[in-house]
Every structure is written in C-alpha cells, then in structure tokens.
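Marked as duplicate of an earlier ticket. Keeping the data here for the record.
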Amino acid sequence: MNSDIRVSTTFPNHPKVVKLQRRLGPQGPLSLIYLWLFVAQNKPDGRLSGMDAEDIEIAAKWDGKDGEFVSALVSLRFIEKEGNVFILHGWEEHNAYASAAKMRKEKAKKAAEARWRKRLGECSEHAEALPQASASTAPTPSPTPSPKEHTPHNPPEGGSGKKKAAVGIQTFLQQCAESGEKPIPPEDKVFEYAASVGIPHEWLHLCWREFVQRNIDSGKRYKDWRRVFRNCVRGNWYKLWWAKPDGEMGLTTQGALARKKHRESAA
C-alpha cells in the first residue's frame, strides 16, 4: 500500500488547477488532492472501478453541491470515463511509483518467499545462529501443546519393526545437517498454509527461530518436528500475528518484540 504520492511544486499555478479553484473555490484543489491520496491507497492503478460520482466526492471529502466536483473534474480532464468506469487522467505518468504498487507488492512477495524458504531450510544457520532462550525471556506458548496431542504416529522404518524415536530439537537439526536435509523443506505444507492466510515469509521465519529457541530451552522431544512446527504456525502458538478487520495480517506487540530480540541476537 502506498504511503505518499508525488505532487509537483507547480501544482497551485497549473492552469487546470487555477480553473478548478475559480469554479469551486479553495475546496476544489484540496478535494482533488484528497482524491489522489485515496486512489494511491485504494485504487493504485488509477481506475475508480465500482465508484460512482457520489463515491468519488465522498472519497475526496467534497462537501459542496452534489455532482459539482466530479463534473468539474471531468470538464477539466482531471478524470475521464472509460465505459462505465472513471479513471484518473495521466495517473500512471505523474504517479508512476504509486500506480505500480500492486506490481511491487507481488514482486516483493515472490522475492521474500524465495528468500525465506531458503533461509528457513538451512539447518546449520539455525543450529548455530539461534541462542538458547532463557526462562525469563521465553514464555510458554499459549495454548500449550501436549506431546500426546501433537506427537505424530510414524510407521516403522526400514522394516525393522522399530518406530521412529522422539528426539529434541537440537538432535533433529543435527540429523538434518548430517543427512543433507532441510528442517523445513520448500514443499512443506506450512508454506501453502501461510500463503493462503497471508502470513509473510519473514514472519514464518521469525516463528521458526522462536520455535527452535523455545524448544531448545524446554527440552521437549517429538518424533516429527516438521508436523509440530506446522501445528505451531496454524495455531499461532506464540501469538506473533493477528488478523485485522480488513483481512490483512498484522504483527502483534509480542511478534514485534520477538523480531527485535532475534535481530539483536543476530547482530
């Protein structure tokens, strides 16, 4: 989402702006800027799809005569109509950065996904870089999982009739390093789940670091650490994120503190 727009220093003296002010008074240019800000945040491609004249004037905080503001914008070619859709004239040209917000978001998302999948799967990095948590700084996850509830039942390996033994997180990481496997491989379903609910891969990596650190401290033992981590993410055990009313995910205070802690430990 855009946080600003470009407005030329010549804006007040532009002939179209001067005419807009002569027709509507000082509120005209101000409402135009309000409309541009609204578009940058909500319609970054400059197409006001789903918005009629009244919607546009509400977005622009126009409190004059109904229809007068939009009529003036159309007359002065600040906005145009393409079929039944209003569009901002020259938006991509004058606010190229804002208009490309969706493209930048998708590009950044793909880059972050590739970067964090790689980092999340590197055993040696997590085994060496994560310091052990102390009881004073690593509160117990809520809700607290029980080994019985989250311990998976694994089939016998190699036909020996022996079931896979439960091990601690450090042993699991060491086994991964020795076998050349990634603790959380790129095809793990945790990535698919995170993408489906909007959890950024940076936060997934943060959850993994917190997961490793807390389990080093607790000494818990599981047979399938990957499954336990999936449960941790799905249940948001450490309360690192929350769902906003608009459906977007946000980092909680606890999440922000965890991120600060891990950044400082890595410095």
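See parent ticket for discussion. Confidence is low (pLDDT under 50) at residues 97-101, 122-160.
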